[in-house]
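for the writeup, i need someone to sanity check this before i put it in the appendix. the sequnce is what the collaborator sent (i think, or maybe the updated version? ugh). structure was predicted straight from it, no edits. if anything looks off just tell me and ill rerun, i have time this weekend
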Amino acid sequence: MNGYLVSLVPLIGVNAILALGLNIIAGFCGQISLGQAAFYGIGAYAAALMALAGLPFWLTLPLGALTAGVFGLVVGLVSLRVREDFLAITTMAVGFLFLGLVRKSALFGGEVGLTGIPPSGLGPQGYALLVVGLVAATVALSIYMKASWLGFAFASIAEDEGAARALAVPVPHYKLAAFFIGSALSGLAGAIYCYYARFITPDTFSFLVSVSILAMVVIGGIGSTWGVLLGAVALTLLPEIFRFAGEYRQFLFGLALLMVMRFSPAGLFGMLSRLVPARLGNLRKARA
């Protein structure tokens, strides 16, 4: 496999897991979160510190995810009494608090971050295959969850929280479950990233990263597992595709996103779901 493609696979996988995690919170359960970069960073820093302490790779990945999930649970508890814009502001504040903490703490390396993270021991291709497997597992989890009783409970809360309460749905429990699962997945992505880059700095987990994750979900098609996966892949690859444009790369990237949202508010998956049936219909007419 081409070395450049091998280096891109883990990055695509990290973004895919981040977007799928946010989709559980925002797409399935209808809770706006602008603090996913904080959980991403918590997983990365937790895994990096454990790796530097000598813990094995196969242990740091799940522990990094679990650490982020626990913090997500705490944030979920704090956020139970707020909704919509206030929830977005609350989760945004969590991201800024996290950045302030890691920038000022010697334990986390301050502005310099953490370096010298040991390798996974799998080699580039082995690590890329592991990441692909983790993305596939995350997709399977999302599909299963959406079709399960948990997914139906999430959908009822997203559609009408008041009606869900009236039907005796324990709304706080399911909100906390969404935050825990979505945050844990973000933490897993962070743990994957720390072994991919082998150094982490606070700038890797800035507020703009939270916005980028949200863009992947919205551009792909919020609430759609395959759409969000497509959005993550597209938004990771587009800057690489436009690399030939040099200083105009960001302009072309922004223009492409604008065109998608202008002509397909339902996202890329919505666009494809319309184009494919239309194409099949035209083929049937031509054969007739």
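The domain at 3-206 is CATH 1.10.3470.10 (ABC transporter involved in vitamin B12 uptake, BtuC). The two ends are 44 Å apart (CA to CA).
thx in advance!!
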